[in-house]
Amino acid sequence: MTRSVGTSPQHIPITRDAFKPEDYASVPGKVAETNSHSPEKLEQVWRQVAADGFVSRDEGRKVERAVVANSFLLDRGFAPNTVEAKFIATKLADPSVKLDPGVRARFESVLAERETRMDRGTVLTGTFKHADKLHTLTEGVIDLPFEEFVKKMPPDRWGPNLAEYRGGEVKVTARDAQGRVTEQRERMVTETPLSKYLRPLFGNYANDMTKVEKIVYDDKNRTVAVKWEVLASDNKTTLIDMGELRFSARGGKTKAEFESEHRIDTFPGTLETIEKIPVLNRVVQGATETVMRDFFAACVKRYQDVATGAEPVR
């Protein structure tokens, strides 16, 4: 069991360092390619309204209502969170479906408004359930040009610079011809409201995970992606954790996107029992979704603060 270690990051070593080179082959591509940002409720509504290949104004309003019903953020009116926005953007780009011009204009206006909000510093996040895993998606804009930001905070230091990072260890295993880290393994211990305020009553478990990571740089130096998969969790809090963090150039700024899938055992050893009790499962899953959204939003906000100097680079 790993106990929380206060507010200052500490060296917490990788305890089982028996990973093999082939373990990196398990690191996923984009999680999005599997799940396509498609919450079941929105997919169902979309199939209904687009069955005839044309989305009318009335049918467009049905999609809006479904987006609002599916949204987990407390925004006013038709203001989709990141998951719903990605869903809408995907449908707008689908050449097989024809939309009423007014519907297309409405959807495009909403997406443009979201982009403006992000450029002003708002971090947008969302979740949906995929099989037995929780899918998270978070987007935000960092007020620093891409090249400057990745120089100030190298992508291989993404973990120690997370919000609520309490400690860990990073071991680099491969670099490219330019000396940039391309493969590493990392143990990280992070806190959430559950581990800080609730879990202490039951044993003070922080989220403890050891993962393999790949870092992929594009040839034009406009994007970099950190892809990871957890292979061990010393205190069994993290059963599944895989995903990708993407930094990309956005004019004179940098866009950050977290996309990942999780299966978290909030109180290790109890998840399967909790899932068999519908009422309790809904409460625990709802709390987990809220915590995960807040956590990743806080991580992007910390990257924003690192860029401005409000937070130190670790």
Verbal overview:
This protein has 314 residues and is an alpha+beta fold. It folds into two domains: 206 residues, START domain (Alpha-D-Glucose-1,6-Bisphosphate, Chain A, domain 4); 87 residues, no CATH class. 34% of the residues lie in helices and 29% in strands. It has a nine-stranded mixed sheet, sandwiched between helices. Strands 2-3 form a two-stranded parallel sheet.
Q: Whole-number radius of gyration?
A: 20 Å
The whole-number mean of residue pLDDT values reads 89
- The CATH architecture classification of the largest domain is 2-Layer Sandwich
Shape: globular
What percentage of residues falls in helices of 4 or more residues? 25-40%
- Which sheet architecture does the biggest sheet show? 9 strands, mixed
Oligomer type: single chain
N-to-C order of helices and strands: EHHEHHEHEEHEEHEEEEHH
